[in-house]
Amino acid sequence: MSDDESDPVAAALSGSTDLYDIADWEPRSALDGISVSLYGLLHASRRWLLIVLALLLFVAQLAATILLAIRQPELGVLAALSAVPALAIVGYLWYGDPTNREPLEPLAITFVLSILFASIAALVNTLLNPLFQFVPVVGMVLYFFLVVGPIEETVKWLAVRVGAFGSINAVVDGVVYGAVAGLGFASIENALYISQGYTQALSAQDAGEPIVAALQTATSRAFVGPGHVLYSSFAGYYLGLAKFNSDNAGPIVVKGILIAAVIHAIYNTSVTYLPQLIPGWNLLLFVGFVISFDLVVGYLLYRKLKRYQSHYHRATSG
C-alpha cells in the first residue's frame, strides 16, 4: 500500500510499532475470527439472499397469475406462444455467437432468475408510480425514464450478473445472456398481462368471450416481447465488456444499463403518447410502430455484434 493510501499513523510508524486496531488490522482475537467468518458467510450468501427475496416477492405478487394459468391451460399456451418471437431472437443471437455457444445450464439459470427478479421491478414500479401521477403532461415520461426503464433493465442485468457472469468468456457472451434475461422478463410479463385481460373480460358483462380477450392480449404482447430481449442485450454486451476491463468495470456497466434504459423508456413513451397524437391509432399502427422500432434497435445491436465478429475473425485467423 502506498503512503497516499495509508493513514498518517500507519505511514509513519508501520513496521516499527504494533498498530493493531489503531491504524492497522488483522484477525487476532476470537471476535476478529467471528467477524471474518460472518463476513465470509454474508459475502458468499448475498446472491442467495437476493434470490430468496425475489422468490418471496414473486410468490406474493404473481401466485394468482400462475394458479390461473394452471387452472386454465389455454392461458399458459397463449403465454408460451406470445414469447415465441422473443425466443427466435434469442436463438439467433445464441447461434450467431462467433466464439463458443453458451451452455444450457447458465442460460436456464439466467432465464429463471429474470422471471423471479421481475417481481422486484413490479414492486418498485408500483410503489413509485403514484408519485408521477401528480406531474402534469410529462409525468409518465419522467416515470418511464427515471423508474421503469432503469429498474427493469437493472433487474434483467442482475439476472445475468448473479446467474451467468462466471460463464462469460468473451464480450459477446454477455449479449446472449442479456437476451435470455429479456426473454424471461418478457415471458412472465406476458403471462401477467394475458391473465389480467382474461379476468377483466370475465368480470365485465359486455366484454365478450374472456378467451378472445386473452388471445388479443397475447397477440399484442408477442410484438412487445422482442423489445425486452433487444434492450437487455445491450446491457449484457457492456457487462461482458466490463468483465474484461476491470479498471473501468463500474462505468462500463452503468453505460450499458443507461443505453438499455433509455431505449426502453423511449419505446414506453412512444406507445403511451402516440395514440393521443395520431388520429385513428389502432392495433395495426401499433404493430407497425413496434416492428419498426425493434428493427432500428436490432440493427444497432447487429452493427455492434458485426464489429466484434470482424475483429474476432481477424484475431483468430492467424
From TrEMBL:
Answer whether the UniProt record assigns the keyword Transmembrane to this protein. yes
> What keywords appear on the UniProt entry?
Hydrolase, Membrane, Metalloprotease, Protease, Transmembrane, Transmembrane helix
What's a Pfam family this protein contains? PrsW-protease
- Specify the domain of life of the species encoding this protein: Archaea
Q: Where are the transmembrane segments?
A: 48-70, 76-95, 107-128, 134-151, 252-274, 280-302
GO MF term set: metallopeptidase activity
What is the protein name for this chain? PrsW family intramembrane metalloprotease
Q: What is the lineage of its organism?
A: Archaea, Methanobacteriati, Methanobacteriota, Stenosarchaea group, Halobacteria
